Amino acid sequence: MAIIYALKNIITQVLMAGSFAFLFPMGLDKYVRVFRRRKRMEAMDFDLVIILSSALTILLCSMFSTSIFNYIPLNLGILPLFIGMLYGGYKTGLPLAGLCLLCDFIFNPNWTVLGLFLHTGLPLYPLLIWMSPKFRKGPLTEKINKLWLCLMPAMLLITAAPIIESPNLNLTDAGLVLIVLFYILTSMFTGGTLVYMIEFALEKLRLKEQVMGISEKYLREEEKLQQVIDATPISMVSVDHAGNITSINDTMMNLVKTKDPDLTKQDVLGYPVTMFVDIMGQDYINYRIVQALQGKKLGNELIRIGTHNYYISTSPLTNTHTGAIIGAVLAFQDVTELARLRSELENVERLSLVGQMAASITHEIRNPMAVVRGFLQLMKEKSPEALDHYYRIVMEELDRANGIINDFLSLAQNRIAEKEQWHLHTIISDLSPLLWADANLRGQTIELILDEKVPELSLNAKEIKQLVLNLSRNGMEAMEEKGQLTIETRLNDSFVELIIKDTGMGIAKSRQERLFEPFFTTKAKGTGLGLALCLSIVERHHGKISVESEEGKGTAFTIQFPVTDSWAGMI
User: Which residues form the Histidine kinase domain (predicted)?
Assistant: First the structure.
């Protein structure tokens, strides 16, 4: 009966120690669920799980601790203690060792200092902590061997404790020896099993982390791919074998919403594509999808839907491993804007050809006009003075026609301006005498407001002189006597502004939008090329020109020259 009772107690201790095999995986799973969202954890970083699982197991074993034949202490709390030390090192081992010693003091009625030293395996603690770093990196068999290497002397020390404590004690009973041997072997086997269960739980965690990592990676890649497809200007929708929608991009949804603006992606997924994309006819869409599901790729076909032109194409979707057809993709590309731009480009090319022909013709016209003017001067010298008035009118008109031709040629050539570093104030100073002479003849004044902070710019001096002269003379012609023309420069962020302002009658709002159109003029004898030429000059300098005018108060033209272009030209 004593042997059976001892076997029962040993099995009870094995069950108590074996609870670690259930507590650790359960705690590990809970720990991962709680802390995994905060940061990615490695399997060996769960010291808290090891401490708690080992501590609970040590408490259970201590609470049910007893002895074999009232001599040999029976407490397998040493198994979770040793495992906790080997896996957790000194950070885990020291708290667990303290708990084990405390439990021995509380639950052992025959507690002695020597017994504490013998019953808890205390001499092996330093060895366990020293082996911990290499233990965690080793394979399973090496870990079990190291545990047994420490556990065997500890168990021998525990079973020999009665003899060490009482040297005169005679323990030669055969039954006792067999029970002790069974106790040691069972402890070794249980310890190896616990290590195996821990490694199994950790490996399962590693595999789970890898699978979740791969799943998250593919999920992120799928999200990025969907964003790319949504951003493309091509309308795309994929369908399964039944022709039901499996995915659709934003561009296609915008096309679908022309029929029902309240539709969302979730509303169309899983439904036949012809329910939503039937603006060309369901039979036509069905035909193309059936052909794609049969493995036939139908190339681009130009179709017209309302006022829009589309290229439509269908292609099969296949499994890259098996080659089986798993669906089809339908794509639309809106080429309405492209067709419009192509048409405008053809018109521009025709207009450019007409402009080149006109420039060539007007260039040839100037030669006979120069000859006519020369002969008119000779005729004037030999004619009576009474006819001088008529000769003057004819030559003025010839000069005016020649000026129109020059302006037209400057506008039509649109040549690349050769630029150098010039100060805008230098160009204005060179023009000042000419402008003051014109202003004095008209009884007008000129005011110069020049900002000293204005830097040098990359300019074509000849063209800028023409720009300032044209705008200034336009302002003078718009003013009456005692009018004032203001020429101002200022540095504004990354631009140098040139403002030419007059105090004339102003320009009506309805005419301001057309000021820079060729051949549009507000003057009785204007050609409509002056401001168009000014715009061309400003654009060749990568600048901007704008106008502000109020009837009865005057007009101001503002030209912005980018400073960055000038600095880039200086480097």
Answer: 360-565
Mean pLDDT score, 362-380: 70
What contacts 421, CB < 8 A, 6 or more positions away?
Answer: 456, 457, 458, 459, 566, 569, 570
Q: How far apart are the C-alpha atoms of 173 and 167, rounded to whole Å?
A: 16
HEC letters along 44-112: HHCHHHHHHHHHHHHHHHHHCCEEECCCEEECCCHHHHHHHHHHHHHHHHHHHHHHHHHHHHHHCCCCC
Quick check: 196 and 144 in contact, CB under 8 A?
A: yes
Closest CA to 84 of 98, 99, 96: 96
504 within 8 A of 467, measured Cβ to Cβ: no
**What is the C-alpha to C-alpha distance for residues 330 and 313, in angstroms, rounded to an integer?**
6
**In this structure, are residues 194 and 83 in contact, taking their beta carbons and an 8 Å threshold?**
yes
Give the span between the Cα atoms of 93 and 104, in whole angstroms: 16
Going 333 to 337 to 340 to 346, the CA torsion angle's sign is negative
Residues 135/148, Cβ–Cβ less than 8 Å: no
Please report where in the chains the tokens 């503002």 appear, as a residue. 558
Predicted model pTM: 0.41
Q: Hey, what are 569's tokens? A: 């030209």
- The CA distances from residue 241 to 33, 58, 275, 286, 312, in Å, are 39, 61, 16, 12, 20
Alpha carbon distance 295, 316 (integer Å): 6
Q: Looking at this protein, which amino acid is placed at residue 545? A: I
pLDDT in tens, 117-161: 777 888 888 888 888 888 878 888 888 888 888 888 888 888 877
d(CA 17, CA 93): 17
How many helices (H) does the chain have, and how many strands (E)? 19, 14
Contacts with 106 (C-beta within 8 Å, 6 or more apart), sequence order: 62
